[in-house]
Specification:
This protein is of the alpha/beta class. The protein folds into two domains: 216 residues, D-Maltodextrin-Binding Protein, domain 2, CATH 3.40.190; 95 residues, Periplasmic binding protein-like II (D-Maltodextrin-Binding Protein, domain 2, 3-Layer(aba) Sandwich). The protein has 14 helices and ten strands. Strands 2-1-3-10-4 form a five-stranded mixed sheet. It has a five-stranded mixed sheet with strand order 7-6-8-5-9.
């Protein structure tokens, strides 16, 4: 019996001394959209390792409920997804909470037309077609809010779902739609073929785009690990805000189809817009996105935010 106790104690000591297991994090549309870029900076800059969290890779989530399910199934139990998907999963009874904000705006999105388009102002949208990715997506929210901004009724402009933002741009180029929802980084690479009519970050209400979610299991069993993840990501965002061009250099391997100059310019532009959050929960921006979800029929009724959000894992100065 004493021998068994000694072996058990030795095993416990060895486990305690072992380095943290390397883990990957699920981030929606990583390497395509810019919301998840702080994770790359956090990994390559060593911020997570210094915080005692061995996050070594990023898994690009497909978006929507798929990304949420991937987070729930992951060993880490934390990931970054779009707010709409997090709300939907929580309302379905999934044991997760929003614990920090990732991208606090939609400043990476623009509404574009062809250079010779007769659409000069939003008023010219009447009777036209807007291409977006999928029904009830963020791109449809931006599309319908663009129509609203024009002072038009939803039925006065036809919205066309084309499966992806790339598909929407292709349809625009072929003349199948008159305007498309696009990413700022794509427009900057093709500014000779596209003209911006609306900048979502400047012209629409400020809306939370991406949030960090944690499983109940992680929150209950390893709260200090969750706090370390959020704090390390915050340090990565601070670095990006202070040195956007250096941060852009770190991102080049993740955006190999984007020229370094464009990557640096977009990163700098988004920093000026305050695009990446240090984590603070901003309820006005959350409510604006919730309103967008109602506009596209994804949400009915009011949200009980107390069942959605848990601020307690944020650094103390971000909990107010």
């Amino acid at each position: 019996m004493p021998r068994l106790r000694r072996i058990s104690l030795l095993a416990a000591l060895l486990l305690a001394a072992a380095p943290a297991q390397a883990e990957d994090i699920v981030v929606t549309q990583f390497g395509a959209a810019f919301a998840g870029n702080p994770w790359a900076v956090g990994i390559d800059g060593g911020y997570f390792k210094r915080a005692g969290v061995d996050i070594t890779g990023v898994i690009s989530g497909a978006g929507g409920g798929t990304s949420v399910r991937n987070v729930i199934a992951s060993n880490l139990g934390y990931g970054e997804v779009v707010l709409s998907a997090a709300i939907a999963a929580i309302q379905e009874g999934q044991d997760i909470k929003v614990v920090n904000i990732g991208a606090r705006s939609v400043a990476d999105i623009v509404m574009v037309v062809k250079p010779d388009s007769p659409i000069k102002t939003l008023k010219d949208l009447a009777g036209k077609k807007i291409g977006f990715s999928n029904p009830k997506s963020l791109s449809e929210i931006v599309a319908i809010m663009t129509v609203e901004k024009a002072g038009l009724k939803p039925e006065e402009v036809q919205r066309v779902a084309l499966g992806s933002l790339g598909g929407a741009l292709t349809a625009l180029e072929k003349g199948a739609v008159d305007m498309a929802v696009g990413l700022q980084v794509v427009w900057r690479q093709r500014s000779d073929k596209l003209r911006v009519v609306l900048d979502a970050g400047k012209d629409l209400p400020p809306m939370v785009q991406a949030v960090g979610i944690a499983t109940g299991d992680l929150m209950r069993k390893n709260p200090d690990k969750l706090r370390a993840i959020i704090a390390a990501r915050r340090e990565a965002v601070r670095f990006m805000n202070a040195k956007p061009r250096e941060a852009a250099k770190m991102l080049e391997k993740h955006f190999d189809k984007v020229s370094p100059d464009v990557l640096a310019n977009v990163t700098e532009s988004l920093v000026k817009d305050g695009y990446w959050s240090e984590g603070r929960i901003e309820m006005d921006r959350m409510e604006n996105m919730a309103r967008g979800l109602k506009l596209v029929g994804e949400l009915k009724g009011e949200i009980d935010w107390s069942k959605v959000v848990d601020k307690s894992f944020l650094p103390k100065d971000l909990q107010n």
